[in-house]
Amino acid sequence: MAFSMWSAWVLITTGSAGAVAELTLDPKLKYWVLLPISIVMVLTGILRQYIMDLIAPSTKGVPRVKLTESQWIYKAQALLTNGSNLSAEVFQLRKEQLVEILADGKYLVKLNSDSQAPNPLNDPNLSDSMFSMAKGNLASFIPQTIIMWWVNHFFAGFVLMKLPFPLTPRFKEMLQSGVMTADLDVRWVSSISWYFISVLGLNPVYNLLLSDTEGIDIGVAQQPPTMGGPGEPQPEAIMKSLANDLTIAENESCFDGIEQRVLEKYS
Amino acid sequence: MDATRGRFLSICASKAYTQFSPEELIELNEGCKSYMQLKDPGLSQAQYFSLMEMLFYLAVYLCKDVEAQVLYNTFRDRLGEDSPRLYGMKSTLLQINESDSAAVEFIEKLIKERLEVDTDSVSYLLLQKRLISIQSKDHDKDWILRQLLDLSEKFPIDPEIWWFASQNYFELGQFERAAYCLEEVVLLTPFNFVAFARLAEILYYKSLRVDKSGAKSRLSLQNALNNALRSVELSESYLKGWSLVALTSSKLDGKGRVLQLAKNKLQNTANGFNSQNKATAELILKSI
């Protein structure tokens, strides 16, 4: 089947204000160009998602001592936040205990005894993360390149459809790439532009079709993150800061006036 | 379909099935299997695996070893062995098919060789808890408490450890330590009205059995009343909370209004339709 760029019959209506080009498109373009590009784009997106799942790095573990360190920080935060659930004496007791533990750095992980800053280039975790990032980029870059070549090779120069809403002329370059006409209304979309629109606009479709792609292992997904990563405050500083916060923290117990509150609530 | 899905998922998430009677377990097992066969499109993959995990433990409770093994194999083939849930299932199957010592050996080896240096917040804790639960029947409560305290030092924000430690201290009659552990629970789960009521109960027993009489006893009773009141403040229909409010306020002077309120609430429960709650409320009302 031979397609030609101008398989459409062109109607030119002339008026006093200037020329407005109206095209009548061959209806077969819908079935042989628009639909194949759309289907291939959707299927490629789904396939890419599955490939990304397969090559996704496994959950990165941490040493147990790092978890302990983080958990003591969360414990101090819990006392600051939920301390009102305790009576004043009980809160005071826990406050003193925690301030001592945090100020002494009892559960602080001392990985570098020579106190030198770690060299990021020697960090094996960094190369792993860079490699997985490169894999992710390749998994999205390669299919896009192949499909772009496919669209360009077979469907270059087609005007496929007319958008049902008006657009400003600035969209002309985006929507009519491959069709070199200065006068054509900006609402007409070329095949290569349809490809670009699909690349940018299919995410909601993927979200609908692949709604279950979130982490399966909920327990692991919900774990609190450990602290002290690159660019984050170091645990030692957080502990010291929390110790200071706790030292000056005042307790407002929920038990103050609880009888009156309950009586008012239920009487 | 939504209601059925919600029911199974809430049973699964709350682990309520661990407290079910054999008849209820059979009913749940059959109901859940029938539901899974319907291939509910609203069930996400994570929810599907959660229900499958529940079916595994239901099969274990119902002595369907082969079914449990098949479910484990399905999980392993789809997700691989490297998952905290899978570790837990494998250790359970080792207990069933081999012995407790085989399961202990598996867990200890895993923790020592792998999880101590490369873990997540679930795996290490889950397996340590399983280890304690498997070994607890060969040891006394002091040993269990040492293990729990050691674990709570490593994972201080896990309420389950503190709750279990509190239970053990309570059984040993060490009410002050039991109360300390429960205070940790309410600190970590601030709206846990069950924990507040349990803390009130422990403080009530402390006042009766340790402090016995005098100012110290009154202080413990007042603390027990405060915690019981907090419990009912969070949950209006909590029978245990109102029972403890009634019991503690009846032993304290000048708490007539609170006592009357608690009696009214217990009377409402006694007039209700739940036969178990009705009997409990009537018993409490008679004893006050």
TrEMBL record, chain A:
The chain crosses the membrane at residues 31-51, 138-161, 192-210. Its main location: endoplasmic reticulum. Keywords: Membrane, Signal, Transmembrane, Transmembrane helix. Residues 1-21 form the signal peptide. The keyword Disulfide bond does not apply. Pfam families: EMC3_TMCO1. The EMC seems to be required for efficient folding of proteins in the endoplasmic reticulum (ER). Belongs to the EMC3 family. This is ER membrane protein complex subunit 3.
TrEMBL record, chain B:
The keyword Transport does not apply. This is ER membrane protein complex subunit 2. It comes from the Eukaryota. The keyword Membrane applies. Belongs to the EMC2 family. GO terms for cellular component: EMC complex. It is found in: Endoplasmic reticulum membrane. InterPro entries: EMC2-like (IPR039856), TPR-like_helical_dom_sf (IPR011990), TPR_rpt (IPR019734). Part of the endoplasmic reticulum membrane protein complex (EMC) that enables the energy-independent insertion into endoplasmic reticulum membranes of newly synthesized membrane proteins. Component of the ER membrane protein complex (EMC).
